[in-house]
Amino acid sequence: MKIWREYTLTISLLFILVFFWEVTARIINMAFILPSPTAILVKLWELKVVLIAEHLPATLLIIFIGLAISILLGVGLAVSMNQSKIIEKAFYPLIIFSQMVPTVALAPIFILWFGYSIWSKVLVTVLITFFPITINTYDGLRSGSKELKELLLTMGARKKDIFFIVNVPTALPHFFSGLKVAVTFSVIGAAIGEWLGAQAGLGYFSRRMMTQFDGAGVFAPIILLSVVGILLFLLVKWIENKSLKWRQSQ
Question: Domains in the chain and their CATH numbers?
């Protein structure tokens, strides 16, 4: 009931869109192009064992490995750029440039290098997810109060003390903002990698159904991917709320 009260407009709009989708799909009557939501749900129920037991774990493994690498790489690079102007000038333009090249264009190259192994898909996921984590964390580290830093210096604090007392608490909200974006992008990255070349995974299964002109089969794993993205976002949001209770009290 609480969720319904908070998101009444969103849920109502979603129901309206699904209703029009259902009506339009029935009028067109071309299920291989535009299957109805009910047909997709039926297909999802029919394929639940195959999708959840076989293909979902493969996609989740790519997502979690990619996110872990992105967090380590992104936070480490953000801290290094904050501590060193030389590293900042060397890497910041490269980080921006990395987002200028379309990921879909690089994915086939990764597959050429690593084949259909998991690492080609992980690289696609890392390429998409490390950017928001790095930039948001870096901006958070830079946004610490200069007055507070100067006060701590006059009290004899070292740079390490200032980093943990001022920079880290200030950067945490920014880090979680970047992570919330990254977890949703990670689902997209894993799906793109699997779509272009894989032997298992939700993206691979969707592509296989496309070759069979099974519209509902194409949409079924996409719906499951959307649910995974939402659940990951809510998980990060929950961790953020638990970790930043001090900000809520303020």
Answer: 38-243 (1.10.3720.10)
pLDDT at position 2: 56
Q: Read off the pLDDT of each residue in 226-240 and give the average, rounded to a whole number.
A: 92
Above 60 in pLDDT, residue 249?
no
How far apart CA 45 and CA 40 sit, in angstroms, is 9
Residue 135 has pLDDT above 90, yes or no: yes
User: Which among 126, 127, 120, 99 is positioned nearest to 201, based on CA atoms?
Assistant: 120
What pTM did the predictor assign?
A: 0.86
Measured CA to CA, the distance from residue 175 to residue 135 in angstroms comes to 9
Nearest-angstrom CA–CA distance, 111 and 202:
17
